[in-house]
Design goal:
Layout lengths: L1 H21 L9 E4 L5 E6 L5 E6 L6 E7 L7 E5 L8 E4 L8 E9 L15 E4 L2
Antiparallel strand pairs: 1-2, 2-3, 3-6, 4-5, 4-7, 7-8
Amino acid sequence: MSRIKRVLTVTVGAAACVALAQAPANAVGSWHIADASNGRGTGGFNSGDNNKFRIADTKKDGYSMVLRIKLPGRSEITSCDDRNGANNGFEYCRISNIPRNTEVQFKACAKDFSGGLPGWIDCSYWIKDYTR
């Protein structure tokens, strides 16, 4: 009986070590994702990582990507932009002084900042989350 107990303890302990080793060291909270239409880009919000936002342009089409952010009590929409070309990673932004348990809404949109092409296009739906 004690041999079975020791084998089970070692097996459970080894499985826990493998599960912990597979998690990234910098994984704090989780990303809530907003994908723009037509594969143009993706954005996200991580309330568990000090209110971090991110946006990435994933399509070479002359547009930049913008994460549009609505916060309660603010009439203007805040943004996090990726204007440095497609397929080169995320741009990260933090917005300070957002109280805990505050609703945050965001969506990813393509935008032409040169003015030659139409405004906001291929936007995702508004995604709702809360700060922690």
